[in-house]
Amino acid sequence: MKKVLLMAAALLLAPMAALAVDYQEGVHYTVINDGPGTSKPEITEFFSFYCPHCYRFSKTALPKLEARIPKNVTFNQSHVDFIGREMGPEMSRAFAVAHQLNVEKTMDAALFSAIHEKKQHFTKREDIRALFVANGVAAKDFDAAANSFMVNAQIAKMRRAAENAKVSGVPTLIVNGKYRVETGAIKSYDEAIDIALYLTTK
Fold this sequence. Notes:
Layout: H1 2-19, E1 29-31, E2 42-47, H2 52-68, E3 74-79, H3 87-100, H4 104-116, H5 125-134, H6 139-146, H7 149-164, E4 172-175, E5 179-181, H8 189-199
Parallel strand pairs: 2-3
Antiparallel strand pairs: 1-5, 2-4, 4-5
Helix pairs in contact: 3-4, 3-7
């Protein structure tokens, strides 16, 4: 009976112990902005369709993050253009177009799959356009969005955000526009999520 009570107590205390983890500035996270953070808590994932780690994050960690994130915390994604050579900026444009056309879930999965599963080699915008069309997007809608003011503005915003956050590798999680989760100190994506969620409360 005593053993059962001890086990029950250990199980009850386990979540509290997890919350009490001492994440340290300069080890688990870096302050990238000395000013105030965003007005509302948010987590932003910087990623690239060309990054195999980002592909694994999207398959394994992202569903866990989306399931655990509190309702008061916003989750955003931002594509970086420094991977993929001349196609890096085109993939950022593809990401922005998908958002503009409200097909981001479909096209994010399709682009990741084309690159990492089917080993498709993209060499020009028309290759990306063909993938959008194959996934149900009208060619004229892609063309109109690809050169639109809204898409160009989002591309510029993503580039500025990556520069301001000093993002040099992906996937990278930025919290409240103020903290960068440091992947060098973590053992798994689950731990990165734990740190990001912790930082939303700071």
